[in-house]
Structure formats: structure tokens, C-alpha cells
Amino acid sequence: MPVVTLTDISIRNLKPTAGKRITYLDKAIKGFGVRITENGQMSFVLTYGPNRTRLKLGEVGIVKLADARQKARTILAERQLGQYQPKGQATYEGALEGFLAACRAKNRPRTVKDYTRLLTSYGFGAEKLTDIAAPAIVKKLKPLDNRPGERAHVVAALRIFFGHCVRKSLLDRSPMERIERVPKAPARTRVLTDNELVAVWQATEGTFGTIVRLCILLGQRRSEIAKLRAEYIKDGLITLPGSLTKNKREHIFPYGPIAAAILAELPKEGYLFPARKTWRGTGTVYCAWNKDKPRLDKASGISGWVLHDLRRTLVSGWAALGIRLEVTEKYINHISGTHGGIVGVYQRHTFLPEMREAVERWERHLTSLLP
């Protein structure tokens, strides 16, 4: 195979040879070149490895020389680092291992855990990636027809995974391109009435009940309440670290006397709601949502709501009490709305006095409802 200096001009001057396919190798990158057929069709190719595997990088005229050359460099570098697998040889489980490793480097542990569960439970195994087609994926999704929420999560995870495979040159195209996107569920609008709040409050008990009461009082997300630590609470303030909040920003907010009485009964160090130790010998935080929530629904006689609705209930209740919207948004840690744009950049007021007054008004309102 002739070795030449490949440029846009030299490639245009290449001529086909009757009865032969010739690859012109580039002087700059070992194995990279242009393959021309007897009919004059030209493609960028990369030949590598002990078995002299040839990989087509794209057709000349569609793919630019600079792009093809960069692609060749990337593949050769990934091979040296042990990260590259040729198309047609990578398996689903092998690619999944690489995908999850990449996720661990940039995503939160909870996200990695969700990807692991979804892509293992509803994914594949030793099948080659190139053998996985849309019909096989549809078959995997069939049992989820009556679980639209779970189906949406699985489809999203598979779409992200196969997109990763395409970017890593394990596939030319994602089989998810032919899978219909799951329509977004309508936004929830449930707000508990005063009578419902009273019924729920009075039916609460145990660890879950304490979490529910704090959700009613504080309006923070259930995961943020469940993962509270004693060291986050000081001088009448709770400070949530950025690693715990949805927007990854530290969040400082006050709490009122009723919440203070509840917090005073909880552990003085570590997690306020630790889970029981498992056979592994380690404990995490409370996570028995699916077991305790139905019990609370039955005891209270109130159903059709989720814990996040208590957050919306607090926001709506504060509005009814005449509390300013910017105070409410600051309290629930929303950085859009009144705290978005230029306000978010230049407005440095903490609103702590206003939030403390609002919290106390909310607690007085709740006290007036309780018998």
C-alpha cells in the first residue's frame, strides 16, 4: 500500500485502478488512509491491531479529512488506554460496565444506582451491541405497559446508554432511534386541604411520621429531610450542603418552634433518620417509603397524594397567608422565578428574617387547625 501525504488536494488527485482496491496510507498517522475502489468511491479507513482490522471512518466528500484524522487519533489513543472495542465485538454487559464507570466519575451515587438498576433489570447480557435491534428492546419494555412511569425511566436510561455507545464508536447508530419517546407526564397539581393536612398530621407515627411532619412544616424535599444530619442544624438554622440539594447549591433556612421540638427528640450526631443496620454491618438512611406511605394513607383516610405534594401545599399555604413570593422561593431553594436571571447574579440578600417570620406564621396557622 502506497504511503502519501494526505491533503484535500492530494485526495482529489487520487485515481481508481481497474480491477483493484487501493489504500493510500497517510504519512502522519500510522494505519490511517484513503481507500479507493475501482469505481472511484473513496473512504477514510483506519487499519490497526495484530489482525490488521480495518475500520471505515466515513466517505470522502461527506466526512472532512480533518475530522477523519481526528477520529483515527482518538481510536488509536483509546486502544492504547484499553478503552476502545471495535464495532461488532462489544457486548451489552461489557459496554454497560464502561458506561457505569464513566457515570461514577461525573454523576451522583443515586444516579449511578438508578442507571445500574434500570439497565440491568430491563437491559441485555452477553448479546453483541450490533445484534440488539429495536424489536428486541420493545419486547423488553412490553411488561411495563401498565407502569408508564417506570417505562419512561427505562426508555430514558437506554437512550442515554446507547447514545454513549455511539459516541464511543461501539455502534454506528442507536437502536433507540426507532423507539417512540414516552410522553411527559402532566405536572402534578395536588394540594392538600386544611382538613387533609390535619388528618395526615394526626395519623403520623414512627420515623416515617416524623419525616412527614417535618415535610409539612419545612416544605423541603423528602430526600433532603430523610438525609438530615445533626451537624446541619445550628442556631435555629438548617444548612443543606450542595451535595444534597437538587440544584447543588448550599441552602440555609430557619425553622420554627414546633419543628425545633421535633428536632430536639432526634439523634444529636450523624443522621437524624438512620436505617437499621443490615447484614452487611452498615446503616444508611430511612428508605421504607413504599411500605410506610400506604399505611399512612389507610390510617389518615387520605390518598392520591405523594410527599412532594406537601411542598406544593406549603407554597400555596404561604401565598394564602400573604407571604411574598421571593421569600417563598428563597425558602424552598428555587433559583428560577424571582431569583433567576440578573436577580440571581446580583441579589445577595439572604431573606433570613423574612423566612423566619414566614415559618412562624405557617406554624401558627397549622396550630390553629389542630384540635
Give an overview of the whole structure:
By secondary structure, this protein is α+β, with helices and mostly antiparallel strands. The protein is 46% helix and 10% strand. The protein has helices spanning 8-12, 65-80, 92-106, 109-121, 134-141, 148-167, 194-203, 206-218, 222-226, 257-264, 289-300, 308-320, 325-331, 341-346, 352-369, and strands at 3-4, 22-26, 32-36, 42-48, 53-59, 233-234, 237-240, 251-254. A hairpin with a 5-residue loop joins strand 2 (22-26) and strand 3 (32-36). The mean pLDDT is 88.
Write the layout of secondary structure elements.
Elements: E1 3-4, H1 8-12, E2 22-26, E3 32-36, E4 42-48, E5 53-59, H2 65-80, H3 92-106, H4 109-121, H5 134-141, H6 148-167, H7 194-203, H8 206-218, H9 222-226, E6 233-234, E7 237-240, E8 251-254, H10 257-264, H11 289-300, H12 308-320, H13 325-331, H14 341-346, H15 352-369
Parallel strand pairs: 1-2
Antiparallel strand pairs: 2-3, 3-4, 4-5, 6-7, 7-8
Helix pairs in contact: 3-4, 7-11, 8-12
